[in-house]
Design brief:
This protein folds into two domains: 283 residues, FAD/NAD(P)-binding domain, CATH 3.50.50; 143 residues, Beta Barrel (Elongation Factor Tu (Ef-tu), domain 3). 29% of the residues lie in helices and 15% in strands.
Protein backbone atom coordinates (compact mmCIF):
# COMPACT_ATOMS: atom_id res chain seq x y z
CA UNK A 1 0.00 0.00 0.00
CA UNK A 2 0.93 3.68 -0.23
CA UNK A 3 2.58 6.14 2.12
CA UNK A 4 0.17 8.95 2.85
CA UNK A 5 0.09 12.03 5.08
CA UNK A 6 -2.62 13.47 7.30
CA UNK A 7 -2.08 17.06 8.45
CA UNK A 8 -3.87 17.90 11.69
CA UNK A 9 -4.43 15.80 14.80
CA UNK A 10 -7.95 16.96 15.59
CA UNK A 11 -11.12 14.92 15.24
CA UNK A 12 -11.17 14.90 11.43
CA UNK A 13 -7.44 14.16 11.18
CA UNK A 14 -7.57 11.27 13.63
CA UNK A 15 -10.57 9.74 11.87
CA UNK A 16 -8.84 10.04 8.48
CA UNK A 17 -5.60 8.55 9.81
CA UNK A 18 -7.45 5.60 11.34
CA UNK A 19 -9.41 4.89 8.17
CA UNK A 20 -6.26 4.95 6.05
CA UNK A 21 -4.19 2.85 8.44
CA UNK A 22 -6.93 0.25 8.78
CA UNK A 23 -7.12 0.06 5.00
CA UNK A 24 -3.45 -0.87 4.80
CA UNK A 25 -1.62 2.42 4.26
CA UNK A 26 1.39 3.76 6.16
CA UNK A 27 0.22 7.08 7.61
CA UNK A 28 2.33 10.06 8.64
CA UNK A 29 0.13 12.13 10.97
CA UNK A 30 1.48 15.66 11.37
CA UNK A 31 0.38 17.55 14.50
CA UNK A 32 2.10 20.78 15.54
CA UNK A 33 1.36 20.58 19.26
CA UNK A 34 3.20 20.79 21.61
CA UNK A 35 5.97 22.29 19.44
CA UNK A 36 3.58 25.07 18.44
CA UNK A 37 0.63 25.42 20.78
CA UNK A 38 -2.59 27.43 20.45
CA UNK A 39 -4.41 29.89 22.71
CA UNK A 40 -7.21 27.35 23.25
CA UNK A 41 -5.54 23.95 23.63
CA UNK A 42 -4.47 22.83 27.09
CA UNK A 43 -2.64 19.58 26.27
CA UNK A 44 -0.57 17.89 23.60
CA UNK A 45 -3.21 15.18 23.17
CA UNK A 46 -4.76 14.30 19.85
CA UNK A 47 -8.47 15.02 19.33
CA UNK A 48 -8.58 17.47 22.24
CA UNK A 49 -12.04 18.96 22.78
CA UNK A 50 -11.58 22.68 23.34
CA UNK A 51 -15.24 23.69 23.32
CA UNK A 52 -18.21 21.68 24.57
CA UNK A 53 -17.75 18.09 25.73
CA UNK A 54 -21.00 17.05 24.07
CA UNK A 55 -21.34 15.33 20.70
CA UNK A 56 -25.07 16.16 20.74
CA UNK A 57 -28.02 13.84 20.38
CA UNK A 58 -27.92 10.12 19.65
CA UNK A 59 -31.64 10.02 18.82
CA UNK A 60 -32.02 8.77 15.26
CA UNK A 61 -34.86 11.21 14.62
CA UNK A 62 -32.39 14.03 15.30
CA UNK A 63 -30.06 14.89 12.40
CA UNK A 64 -27.02 14.64 14.69
CA UNK A 65 -28.10 11.19 15.83
CA UNK A 66 -28.65 10.02 12.27
CA UNK A 67 -25.20 11.27 11.28
CA UNK A 68 -23.71 9.21 14.12
CA UNK A 69 -25.43 6.09 12.77
CA UNK A 70 -23.82 6.71 9.38
CA UNK A 71 -20.43 7.28 11.03
CA UNK A 72 -20.75 3.99 12.92
CA UNK A 73 -21.50 2.24 9.61
CA UNK A 74 -18.11 3.50 8.38
CA UNK A 75 -16.22 2.57 11.54
CA UNK A 76 -15.86 5.82 13.50
CA UNK A 77 -12.98 5.86 15.98
CA UNK A 78 -14.42 8.98 17.62
CA UNK A 79 -17.68 7.25 18.49
CA UNK A 80 -15.87 4.17 19.83
CA UNK A 81 -13.81 6.43 22.12
CA UNK A 82 -16.89 8.43 23.09
CA UNK A 83 -18.79 5.26 24.01
CA UNK A 84 -15.98 4.26 26.37
CA UNK A 85 -15.57 7.68 28.00
CA UNK A 86 -19.14 8.90 28.16
CA UNK A 87 -20.68 10.59 31.18
CA UNK A 88 -24.40 11.07 31.93
CA UNK A 89 -25.98 13.48 29.46
CA UNK A 90 -29.52 12.36 28.72
CA UNK A 91 -30.02 11.62 25.02
CA UNK A 92 -26.79 13.46 24.20
CA UNK A 93 -23.43 11.71 23.85
CA UNK A 94 -21.38 13.56 26.49
CA UNK A 95 -17.82 12.56 27.36
CA UNK A 96 -15.08 13.13 29.88
CA UNK A 97 -12.97 15.32 27.62
CA UNK A 98 -9.60 14.33 29.11
CA UNK A 99 -10.25 10.58 29.02
CA UNK A 100 -11.67 10.91 25.51
CA UNK A 101 -8.58 12.66 24.15
CA UNK A 102 -6.30 10.20 25.94
CA UNK A 103 -8.15 7.22 24.49
CA UNK A 104 -7.97 8.67 20.97
CA UNK A 105 -4.28 9.49 21.42
CA UNK A 106 -3.47 6.00 22.73
CA UNK A 107 -5.25 4.21 19.90
CA UNK A 108 -3.86 6.37 17.09
CA UNK A 109 -0.25 6.47 18.32
CA UNK A 110 -0.24 2.71 19.05
CA UNK A 111 -1.37 1.75 15.56
CA UNK A 112 1.56 0.02 13.82
CA UNK A 113 0.87 1.85 10.56
CA UNK A 114 0.61 5.37 12.04
CA UNK A 115 3.63 7.58 12.76
CA UNK A 116 2.81 10.79 14.64
CA UNK A 117 5.18 13.63 13.74
CA UNK A 118 5.15 16.66 16.04
CA UNK A 119 5.92 19.58 13.75
CA UNK A 120 4.15 22.46 12.03
CA UNK A 121 3.20 21.94 8.40
CA UNK A 122 4.02 25.03 6.33
CA UNK A 123 2.98 23.70 2.91
CA UNK A 124 0.76 21.03 1.41
CA UNK A 125 2.41 17.59 1.30
CA UNK A 126 3.68 16.46 -2.13
CA UNK A 127 2.27 12.94 -1.57
CA UNK A 128 -1.40 11.88 -1.28
CA UNK A 129 -2.80 13.56 1.80
CA UNK A 130 -5.75 14.60 3.92
CA UNK A 131 -5.54 18.16 5.26
CA UNK A 132 -7.64 18.78 8.39
CA UNK A 133 -5.95 21.69 10.11
CA UNK A 134 -8.99 23.30 11.68
CA UNK A 135 -10.66 26.70 11.59
CA UNK A 136 -7.51 28.79 12.06
CA UNK A 137 -4.84 27.22 9.87
CA UNK A 138 -1.34 28.70 10.21
CA UNK A 139 -0.47 31.64 7.93
CA UNK A 140 2.23 29.73 6.03
CA UNK A 141 -0.01 26.78 5.23
CA UNK A 142 -2.90 29.14 4.48
CA UNK A 143 -0.72 30.91 1.91
CA UNK A 144 0.17 27.61 0.22
CA UNK A 145 -3.47 26.52 0.16
CA UNK A 146 -4.41 29.86 -1.40
CA UNK A 147 -1.73 29.33 -4.05
CA UNK A 148 -3.14 25.91 -4.96
CA UNK A 149 -6.69 27.29 -5.01
CA UNK A 150 -5.66 30.11 -7.33
CA UNK A 151 -5.72 33.02 -4.90
CA UNK A 152 -6.73 34.15 -1.42
CA UNK A 153 -10.31 34.72 -2.59
CA UNK A 154 -10.69 30.95 -2.33
CA UNK A 155 -10.68 31.27 1.47
CA UNK A 156 -12.90 33.10 3.93
CA UNK A 157 -11.22 34.55 6.99
CA UNK A 158 -14.10 35.69 9.16
CA UNK A 159 -17.17 33.69 9.93
CA UNK A 160 -20.41 35.66 10.05
CA UNK A 161 -23.41 33.37 10.42
CA UNK A 162 -27.08 34.28 10.68
CA UNK A 163 -29.63 31.83 12.15
CA UNK A 164 -31.55 29.46 9.88
CA UNK A 165 -35.09 28.36 10.69
CA UNK A 166 -37.22 25.50 9.42
CA UNK A 167 -39.60 26.73 6.73
CA UNK A 168 -42.51 24.72 8.12
CA UNK A 169 -42.20 26.46 11.49
CA UNK A 170 -42.82 29.93 9.97
CA UNK A 171 -46.34 31.31 10.38
CA UNK A 172 -47.30 32.12 6.77
CA UNK A 173 -50.44 33.91 7.92
CA UNK A 174 -48.09 36.66 9.14
CA UNK A 175 -44.90 36.31 7.08
CA UNK A 176 -45.49 37.29 3.45
CA UNK A 177 -43.50 36.59 0.32
CA UNK A 178 -42.05 39.57 -1.55
CA UNK A 179 -38.81 41.20 -2.60
CA UNK A 180 -38.34 44.94 -2.04
CA UNK A 181 -39.92 47.02 -4.83
CA UNK A 182 -41.12 43.80 -6.46
CA UNK A 183 -37.61 42.89 -7.60
CA UNK A 184 -36.59 39.26 -7.80
CA UNK A 185 -37.71 36.11 -9.56
CA UNK A 186 -40.95 35.61 -7.64
CA UNK A 187 -42.99 36.29 -4.52
CA UNK A 188 -41.19 33.56 -2.63
CA UNK A 189 -37.65 34.93 -3.05
CA UNK A 190 -37.93 36.36 0.47
CA UNK A 191 -40.34 35.97 3.36
CA UNK A 192 -41.00 39.14 5.34
CA UNK A 193 -41.95 39.32 9.01
CA UNK A 194 -43.57 42.75 9.54
CA UNK A 195 -43.42 44.69 12.80
CA UNK A 196 -45.48 47.51 14.19
CA UNK A 197 -43.78 50.38 15.98
CA UNK A 198 -44.62 48.80 19.34
CA UNK A 199 -43.39 45.36 18.31
CA UNK A 200 -40.14 46.85 17.03
CA UNK A 201 -39.57 48.75 20.30
CA UNK A 202 -40.12 45.61 22.38
CA UNK A 203 -37.86 43.57 20.11
CA UNK A 204 -35.12 46.21 20.22
CA UNK A 205 -35.23 46.33 24.03
CA UNK A 206 -34.98 42.54 24.28
CA UNK A 207 -32.12 42.44 21.79
CA UNK A 208 -30.17 45.08 23.67
CA UNK A 209 -30.70 43.29 26.97
CA UNK A 210 -29.85 39.85 25.57
CA UNK A 211 -27.09 37.73 27.09
CA UNK A 212 -24.18 37.61 24.66
CA UNK A 213 -21.29 35.18 24.42
CA UNK A 214 -18.10 37.14 25.12
CA UNK A 215 -15.75 34.86 23.21
CA UNK A 216 -11.99 34.65 23.53
CA UNK A 217 -9.15 37.00 22.64
CA UNK A 218 -8.10 34.83 19.71
CA UNK A 219 -11.62 35.01 18.28
CA UNK A 220 -11.96 38.76 18.50
CA UNK A 221 -9.51 39.85 15.81
CA UNK A 222 -10.53 39.76 12.16
CA UNK A 223 -7.98 38.61 9.61
CA UNK A 224 -5.32 41.25 9.08
CA UNK A 225 -5.60 42.79 12.55
CA UNK A 226 -2.73 42.59 14.99
CA UNK A 227 -2.35 39.31 16.84
CA UNK A 228 -4.47 36.20 16.37
CA UNK A 229 -4.09 33.99 13.33
CA UNK A 230 -3.12 36.83 11.05
CA UNK A 231 0.04 37.37 13.05
CA UNK A 232 0.95 33.73 13.34
CA UNK A 233 -1.37 32.43 16.05
CA UNK A 234 -3.39 29.26 15.78
CA UNK A 235 -6.82 28.23 16.94
CA UNK A 236 -8.26 24.83 17.67
CA UNK A 237 -8.49 22.07 15.10
CA UNK A 238 -11.75 20.20 15.17
CA UNK A 239 -13.56 22.53 17.56
CA UNK A 240 -17.26 23.18 17.37
CA UNK A 241 -18.46 26.60 16.32
CA UNK A 242 -21.00 27.74 18.86
CA UNK A 243 -22.63 31.02 19.75
CA UNK A 244 -22.02 30.36 23.43
CA UNK A 245 -19.72 28.17 25.49
CA UNK A 246 -20.71 24.61 26.26
CA UNK A 247 -20.09 22.67 29.46
CA UNK A 248 -16.55 23.18 30.79
CA UNK A 249 -15.60 25.50 27.94
CA UNK A 250 -12.66 27.75 28.93
CA UNK A 251 -13.50 31.40 29.45
CA UNK A 252 -9.94 32.76 29.07
CA UNK A 253 -9.38 36.36 27.99
CA UNK A 254 -12.96 37.25 27.08
CA UNK A 255 -13.69 39.83 24.42
CA UNK A 256 -16.93 41.74 24.93
CA UNK A 257 -18.89 41.92 21.64
CA UNK A 258 -20.38 45.35 22.42
CA UNK A 259 -16.92 46.78 23.19
CA UNK A 260 -16.26 49.40 20.45
CA UNK A 261 -12.58 48.43 20.43
CA UNK A 262 -13.44 45.01 18.98
CA UNK A 263 -12.57 45.40 15.28
CA UNK A 264 -15.56 43.77 13.59
CA UNK A 265 -15.92 44.12 9.86
CA UNK A 266 -18.72 46.60 9.15
CA UNK A 267 -20.23 44.08 6.74
CA UNK A 268 -20.73 41.45 9.44
CA UNK A 269 -21.56 43.40 12.57
CA UNK A 270 -23.53 41.48 15.20
CA UNK A 271 -27.18 42.52 15.12
CA UNK A 272 -26.96 43.42 18.82
CA UNK A 273 -24.09 45.85 18.06
CA UNK A 274 -26.25 47.54 15.43
CA UNK A 275 -29.10 47.71 17.95
CA UNK A 276 -26.83 49.45 20.46
CA UNK A 277 -25.95 52.19 17.97
CA UNK A 278 -29.36 53.82 17.98
CA UNK A 279 -33.12 53.41 17.99
CA UNK A 280 -33.41 53.38 14.20
CA UNK A 281 -30.11 51.79 13.14
CA UNK A 282 -31.73 48.40 12.49
CA UNK A 283 -34.82 49.98 10.92
CA UNK A 284 -32.61 51.76 8.41
CA UNK A 285 -30.36 48.74 8.03
CA UNK A 286 -31.24 45.03 7.75
CA UNK A 287 -34.79 45.64 9.01
CA UNK A 288 -35.68 48.47 6.64
CA UNK A 289 -39.30 48.21 5.43
CA UNK A 290 -38.82 50.32 2.29
CA UNK A 291 -40.35 48.81 -0.84
CA UNK A 292 -42.60 46.39 1.06
CA UNK A 293 -46.29 46.40 1.98
CA UNK A 294 -47.96 44.11 4.46
CA UNK A 295 -50.83 42.43 2.55
CA UNK A 296 -52.87 42.28 5.76
CA UNK A 297 -52.93 46.09 6.11
CA UNK A 298 -51.93 47.33 2.66
CA UNK A 299 -49.40 49.61 4.39
CA UNK A 300 -45.66 49.69 4.82
CA UNK A 301 -44.63 48.09 8.15
CA UNK A 302 -42.60 50.01 10.71
CA UNK A 303 -39.82 47.43 10.34
CA UNK A 304 -39.34 44.07 8.62
CA UNK A 305 -37.21 41.00 9.26
CA UNK A 306 -36.44 39.38 5.93
CA UNK A 307 -35.88 35.65 5.54
CA UNK A 308 -33.92 34.37 2.54
CA UNK A 309 -34.27 30.80 1.33
CA UNK A 310 -31.22 28.57 1.82
CA UNK A 311 -32.34 25.75 -0.45
CA UNK A 312 -34.35 25.30 -3.62
CA UNK A 313 -37.28 23.63 -1.90
CA UNK A 314 -37.71 26.31 0.77
CA UNK A 315 -37.09 24.02 3.74
CA UNK A 316 -34.50 26.38 5.28
CA UNK A 317 -34.73 30.16 5.70
CA UNK A 318 -31.93 32.51 6.75
CA UNK A 319 -32.61 35.58 8.94
CA UNK A 320 -30.94 38.19 6.73
CA UNK A 321 -28.47 40.41 8.58
CA UNK A 322 -28.99 38.66 11.92
CA UNK A 323 -25.47 37.38 12.57
CA UNK A 324 -25.18 37.42 16.34
CA UNK A 325 -23.28 36.51 19.46
CA UNK A 326 -26.40 36.01 21.54
CA UNK A 327 -26.27 32.73 23.41
CA UNK A 328 -28.43 30.01 21.86
CA UNK A 329 -31.12 30.21 24.54
CA UNK A 330 -31.31 33.96 24.04
CA UNK A 331 -31.58 33.55 20.28
CA UNK A 332 -34.63 31.34 20.79
CA UNK A 333 -36.20 33.80 23.22
CA UNK A 334 -35.46 37.06 21.38
CA UNK A 335 -35.92 35.95 17.79
CA UNK A 336 -39.21 34.22 18.57
CA UNK A 337 -40.51 37.70 19.40
CA UNK A 338 -40.42 38.37 15.65
CA UNK A 339 -43.99 38.18 14.25
CA UNK A 340 -44.33 34.94 12.29
CA UNK A 341 -41.45 33.25 14.13
CA UNK A 342 -43.17 32.64 17.46
CA UNK A 343 -42.81 28.88 16.96
CA UNK A 344 -39.65 28.93 14.87
CA UNK A 345 -37.51 25.80 14.88
CA UNK A 346 -33.85 26.76 14.58
CA UNK A 347 -31.81 24.56 12.25
CA UNK A 348 -28.66 26.62 12.84
CA UNK A 349 -27.96 29.31 15.39
CA UNK A 350 -26.16 32.52 14.52
CA UNK A 351 -22.54 33.21 15.43
CA UNK A 352 -19.55 35.39 14.64
CA UNK A 353 -16.03 34.15 15.20
CA UNK A 354 -12.57 33.99 13.70
CA UNK A 355 -12.39 31.26 11.13
CA UNK A 356 -10.73 30.05 7.99
CA UNK A 357 -12.65 27.85 5.61
CA UNK A 358 -12.34 27.09 1.93
CA UNK A 359 -14.75 28.28 -0.74
CA UNK A 360 -15.84 24.71 -1.35
CA UNK A 361 -18.48 25.41 -4.03
CA UNK A 362 -16.07 27.16 -6.41
CA UNK A 363 -12.65 25.73 -5.49
CA UNK A 364 -13.06 22.06 -4.58
CA UNK A 365 -14.32 18.97 -6.35
CA UNK A 366 -17.34 17.14 -4.96
CA UNK A 367 -15.23 15.03 -2.57
CA UNK A 368 -13.13 17.90 -1.20
CA UNK A 369 -9.98 18.08 -3.34
CA UNK A 370 -8.83 20.99 -5.56
CA UNK A 371 -8.64 20.32 -9.28
CA UNK A 372 -4.91 21.10 -9.25
CA UNK A 373 -4.24 18.50 -6.53
CA UNK A 374 -6.86 15.72 -6.79
CA UNK A 375 -4.89 13.58 -4.33
CA UNK A 376 -5.04 16.17 -1.52
CA UNK A 377 -8.41 16.02 0.21
CA UNK A 378 -9.51 18.66 2.70
CA UNK A 379 -11.57 17.66 5.72
CA UNK A 380 -12.99 19.05 8.94
CA UNK A 381 -14.02 22.62 9.59
CA UNK A 382 -11.67 23.83 6.88
CA UNK A 383 -14.23 22.56 4.36
CA UNK A 384 -17.12 24.54 5.84
CA UNK A 385 -18.77 21.93 8.04
CA UNK A 386 -19.67 22.99 11.58
CA UNK A 387 -19.56 20.79 14.64
CA UNK A 388 -17.56 17.96 16.15
CA UNK A 389 -19.34 15.05 14.48
CA UNK A 390 -19.65 16.85 11.14
CA UNK A 391 -15.88 17.47 11.15
CA UNK A 392 -15.13 13.89 12.16
CA UNK A 393 -17.51 12.48 9.53
CA UNK A 394 -15.79 14.49 6.81
CA UNK A 395 -12.46 13.08 8.04
CA UNK A 396 -13.82 9.53 7.74
CA UNK A 397 -15.03 10.17 4.19
CA UNK A 398 -11.74 11.83 3.25
CA UNK A 399 -9.85 8.76 4.47
CA UNK A 400 -12.16 6.45 2.54
CA UNK A 401 -11.73 8.47 -0.65
CA UNK A 402 -7.96 8.88 -0.40
CA UNK A 403 -7.72 5.10 -0.06
CA UNK A 404 -9.85 4.74 -3.20
CA UNK A 405 -7.77 7.26 -5.16
CA UNK A 406 -4.51 5.54 -4.22
CA UNK A 407 -6.00 2.23 -5.36
CA UNK A 408 -7.04 3.78 -8.68
CA UNK A 409 -10.74 3.92 -7.85
CA UNK A 410 -13.08 6.90 -8.17
CA UNK A 411 -14.03 8.84 -5.02
CA UNK A 412 -17.59 8.47 -3.75
CA UNK A 413 -20.06 10.48 -1.68
CA UNK A 414 -23.31 9.17 -0.16
CA UNK A 415 -26.65 10.22 -1.71
CA UNK A 416 -28.34 13.44 -0.49
CA UNK A 417 -31.09 11.42 1.19
CA UNK A 418 -28.49 10.68 3.90
CA UNK A 419 -27.14 13.26 6.36
CA UNK A 420 -23.50 12.92 5.27
CA UNK A 421 -24.44 13.03 1.60
CA UNK A 422 -26.70 16.03 2.17
CA UNK A 423 -23.86 17.91 3.89
CA UNK A 424 -21.58 17.30 0.93
CA UNK A 425 -24.28 18.33 -1.51
CA UNK A 426 -24.61 21.60 0.41
CA UNK A 427 -20.84 22.16 0.40
CA UNK A 428 -20.58 21.63 -3.34
CA UNK A 429 -23.88 23.20 -4.37
CA UNK A 430 -24.17 26.28 -2.14
CA UNK A 431 -24.57 29.56 -3.98
CA UNK A 432 -21.16 31.16 -4.66
CA UNK A 433 -20.70 34.34 -2.67
CA UNK A 434 -23.15 33.20 0.03
CA UNK A 435 -21.39 30.03 1.16
CA UNK A 436 -21.16 29.76 4.94
CA UNK A 437 -20.35 26.87 7.30
CA UNK A 438 -23.20 24.47 8.02
CA UNK A 439 -24.00 21.81 10.59
CA UNK A 440 -26.13 18.72 10.03
CA UNK A 441 -29.90 19.25 9.91
CA UNK A 442 -32.87 17.73 8.14
CA UNK A 443 -33.32 20.86 6.07
CA UNK A 444 -30.34 19.75 3.97
CA UNK A 445 -31.80 16.37 3.15
CA UNK A 446 -33.62 15.60 -0.09
CA UNK A 447 -37.37 16.06 0.60
CA UNK A 448 -39.64 13.05 0.69
CA UNK A 449 -41.36 12.25 -2.60
CA UNK A 450 -44.72 12.28 -0.81
CA UNK A 451 -44.98 15.10 1.77
CA UNK A 452 -45.88 14.07 5.33
CA UNK A 453 -47.46 16.81 7.43
CA UNK A 454 -46.97 15.25 10.87
CA UNK A 455 -43.46 16.19 12.00
CA UNK A 456 -42.82 13.00 13.96
CA UNK A 457 -43.94 10.74 11.13
CA UNK A 458 -41.99 12.83 8.61
CA UNK A 459 -38.79 12.51 10.65
CA UNK A 460 -39.28 8.78 10.99
CA UNK A 461 -39.81 8.44 7.22
CA UNK A 462 -36.65 10.46 6.56
CA UNK A 463 -34.68 8.25 8.94
CA UNK A 464 -35.93 5.01 7.41
CA UNK A 465 -35.16 6.23 3.91
CA UNK A 466 -31.71 7.49 4.96
CA UNK A 467 -30.73 4.24 6.64
CA UNK A 468 -31.76 2.20 3.62
CA UNK A 469 -30.01 4.57 1.21
CA UNK A 470 -26.77 4.55 3.22
CA UNK A 471 -26.73 0.75 3.35
CA UNK A 472 -27.30 0.56 -0.41
CA UNK A 473 -24.54 3.13 -1.02
CA UNK A 474 -22.09 1.08 1.04
CA UNK A 475 -22.99 -2.05 -0.90
CA UNK A 476 -22.88 -0.43 -4.35
CA UNK A 477 -19.61 1.44 -3.74
CA UNK A 478 -17.87 -1.44 -1.99
CA UNK A 479 -17.02 0.70 1.05
CA UNK A 480 -16.46 -1.33 4.20
CA UNK A 481 -16.25 -0.13 7.78
CA UNK A 482 -12.82 0.28 9.34
CA UNK A 483 -12.26 -2.20 12.15
CA UNK A 484 -12.23 -0.86 15.69
CA UNK A 485 -9.62 -1.13 18.45
CA UNK A 486 -9.69 -4.47 20.22
CA UNK A 487 -11.03 -6.28 17.16
CA UNK A 488 -9.13 -8.53 14.80
CA UNK A 489 -6.24 -6.81 13.03
CA UNK A 490 -6.21 -3.73 15.23
CA UNK A 491 -4.26 -2.48 18.19
CA UNK A 492 -6.15 -2.39 21.49
Amino acid sequence: MARVTVVGGGLAGCEAAWQLAQRGHDVRLVEMRPVHSTPAHQTAGLAELVCTNSFKSEDLTNAHGLLKAEMRDLGSLLLRAADETRVPGGTALVVDRHRFSQRMTDWVTAHPRVTVVREQATSLPPEPAVVATGPLTSPALTADIARVLGGAEGLAFYDSIAPIVDGESIDRSIAFGAARWGKGTGDDDYLNCPMTREEYAAFLAALRAGDVYAGHAWEGLPFGASGGAAAGGEAPAGGEAVSGPGPNEPEDAPVTPLDPSVPYFEGCLPVEVLAARGEDTLRFGPMKPIGLRDPRTGKRPWAVVQLRREDATGQMWNLVGFQTRLRTGEQRRVFRMIPGLERAEFLRFGSIHRNTYLDFPTRLQFYGAPVARPGVIFAGQLTGVEGYTESAASGILAGVNLDRLVRGEAPVVPPPSTILGALYRYLRGAEPGRFQPMNSNFGLVEPLAEPVRDKGRRRQALVERARAAFAEWLRASGVEAAEMPGLAGTTP
